[in-house]
Amino acid sequence: MTTSLRVLDDGAWISVDDHREVRVSELWRLDAPGFCGCDMADLVVENFQEVGVDGARVETRVHGQCIACGETGVTDWLPVGRVRGGEFVEYDRSCVRRTRRE
Amino acid sequence: MPTDVENWKSEVYGNEIREHLFEFAERGFDSIPDDERDAWFERFKWWGLYHQRNGQEGYFMMRIGTPNGVLEPGQLRVVGEIADEYARGPGTNPIFGDAYADFTTRQSIQLHWIELSDVPAIFEKLETNGLSTQQACGDSWRNVVGNPVAGKDGREVIDAWPVIRDLNETFKGNDDHANLPRKWKVSVTGSADGSGQGDINDLAFEPAYKAVDGNGSGSGEGGGSGEDAVGFNVRVGGGLARNEPRFARDIDVWVPPERVSDVAGGLSALFRDHGDREDRYNARIKFLVDEWGPERVRETLQADYVDFELETAGRDVREEYTYNAGEGERNDLVGVHDQKDGRNFVGLNVLVGRMGAADVLELADLAAEYGSGEVRLSQRQNVVVTDVPDEKLDDFLESDLLEHYSPSPSPFMRGSVACTGTEFCSLSIVETKNRQVRFARWLKENAELPDGVEEFHVHLSGCTASCAQPQIADVSLRGMKTRKDGEPVEALDVGLGGGLGEEPGFARWVTQRVPADEVPGAIANLLERFADEREEGESFRAFVARHDDEELDAFVDPEETDYEDPMLHNTKRTWYPYAENDALDDAPPVPADD
Ligand code: HEM
Ligand code: SF4
Ligand SMILES: [Zn+2]
């Protein structure tokens, strides 16, 4: 089954199979050395830029701001959840997200 | 690659959406195929329906576009009756109750908790009374705005109301202009006060004098009898959204009133053909004006979109603009003002633009009893009762309803504007309307303006879309998140010193991520510094202008006070922030068809 993924509402939501599933305005902890100087960025998710899928893993690039150091910008691809048996399951919001490393 | 939205629009868009909408209404919300929801919700916007946020499945916000904010006699009553009958849902607002209407910053009306199955009946009632939701949202001509008291205002240079009516009739439902790359917001103002707020619209017509020969179709300065004609200068490419605010730019064109429609249609066609359909973020015409510059916009308009010689810009009256200017008098239309015909218009303050259905109905009755029955809406979310003769004025001002919707409110009540926020809007980061009401009430009791400062505008928007026009206020507040004692809390970025007027300026964002419960204290502290360090007679905007960001950041000084904020937690993770059991898992089911 193919999964339909899109960014809606000017970047405020990720829609998975026509249901709004992942929202902006959460705080995510990131292990993303490319984004800012912090060991662990504390990112306010402001806008989803793109959404994609890597195997079963749904990923996104977000525009946001690290509230620990103030840096703003667009992240690399970050995991947000996975599709299991046709159902989307969002990763726990308190988990640390690691940017994809090729 | 065209976006999903462009693909959906190329399949079905514009007037034809209505048939489908009515069919879904007939067969029930669940008849919308699961894999077509995103597409249909996008399309429904064209007919003024916005699906509410997660957890409010099956409920819609409905926007009624009232051109220039004009409600003809009887129409406000119709709105009140519809709100009373249909704008009720599973959630009750602790301040406003059930069934209310929101008056918006673009002179429209929004109702909430509308069920799809009721849409045909509501449309019928609206349309038989001359009202419509057509193109109230979506990628096309939105509600045309202006000075709401056009045709009556003592400060009028030219009556813009016939022009606006003509634009409305020409471009609503017009298939050639129904599918634009993005929204298209037009303002036409005929008064010398700037109350049409043209500078923040995609296309603005503002009053200007021009020496032309003959009947207005002549060819420029110096050629004619020297008599100045009154018409409009044209500006293009304003807008506040997306952290990329722009003021509309002067394209050096003057038009007589009878040609506004040709020029407006030409520019809307130019946008249709040249706007960016590949990237919705870049689609608004403000970005095309950035890229092209105003000269090329003018040249293209002249070469490809109008079949007469454009005049160069005329002499404007911008130096007289006061609306939302942060200085001088008449920053809004609240209070009693003279009409040209000797009667009065009375602007009433509607705190954050929200009014319960019972009050809407009572206001409609008062307008009929003391005025002509007409009511108009301003861009500061307020209402204006027109045509009140001198001999009825005192009785009108003593009506009970005016205790709540005052013509002479506290500056903190009067200056408050707030968008929809997490209560209904899927973009929002924080709670807004009720919070702004709490802020205004607290500030009224606890903060003071220096002597001689009568107005102070605080605008709160839940996200960067900027529906509450935060960047043109004395204090701009915008939804954010931060951590307080390790916990995520709703926060606000604070900007200062924005305003329109002859030389408009956007607020500067000086302090970031103030936890929402510390914002009233921050504003009170800021006002104390203003009072202490103000130069004789200085306006707040001028005070801000002569300080740098660092100094201003220090003046803001967030502080906990006895202000309590019950909505500090993540209101976005609820199905309705004010519900007793607010968790998303407790969301009500899709409303059953009846
Ligand atoms: C239920 C959801 C929403 C509600 C209740 C809402 C409410 C409003 C209101 C009251 C206004 C004032 C203007 C008017 O009457 O036209 C407005 C304007 C605006 N809205 Fe929304 N809105 C919603 C969703 C959205 C979405 C999804 C977007 C973006 C895709 C958006 C972007 C804007 C922008 C950019 C403005 C005006 C700012 C400017 O002039 O550039 N809104 N909205
Ligand atoms: S400013 Fe943002 S949160 Fe407020 S109504 Fe507009 S889109 Fe929604
Ligand atoms: Zn950081």
CATH class of the largest domain in chain B, named Alpha Beta
Helix count from the secondary structure assignment of chain A = 0
Number of beta strands of chain B:
20
Terminal CA distance of chain A: 27 Å
Helicity range of chain B:
25-40%
- Reported by name, the CATH topology of the largest domain in chain B is Sulfite Reductase Hemoprotein, domain 1
Order of helices and strands of chain A: EEEEEEEEEE
- What Rg of chain A, in angstroms, do the CA atoms define? 13 Å
Distance between the termini of chain B: 43 Å
- Going by CATH, the homologous superfamily of the largest domain in chain B would be Sulfite Reductase Hemoprotein, domain 1
Largest interface: A-B, 23 and 29 residues
Stretches of chain A where pLDDT falls below 50 for ≥5 residues? Answer: none
Shape of chain A: globular
Number of domains of chain B: 4
Strand segment count of chain A: 10
Question: Could you walk me through the main structural features you see in this protein, from its secondary elements to its overall organization?
Answer:
- The complex is a heterodimer of chains A (102) and B (594).
- Chain A has no helices and 10 strands.
- With 102 residues, chain A is an all-beta fold.
- Chain B has 594 residues and is α+β, with helices and mostly antiparallel strands.
- Chain B folds into 4 domains: 125 residues, Sulfite Reductase Hemoprotein, domain 2; 160 residues, Sulfite Reductase Hemoprotein, domain 1; 69 residues, Alpha-Beta Plaits, CATH 3.30.70; 144 residues, Sulfite Reductase Hemoprotein, domain 1.
- Chain B has 17 helices and 20 strands.
- The site of zinc ion has 7 residues of chain A, from loops.
- Chain B: Pfam families: NIR_SIR, NIR_SIR_ferr.
- Chain B: This is Ferredoxin--nitrite reductase.
- Chain B: It comes from Halorubrum halodurans.
- Chain B: GO terms for molecular function: 4 iron, 4 sulfur cluster binding; heme binding; metal ion binding; oxidoreductase activity.
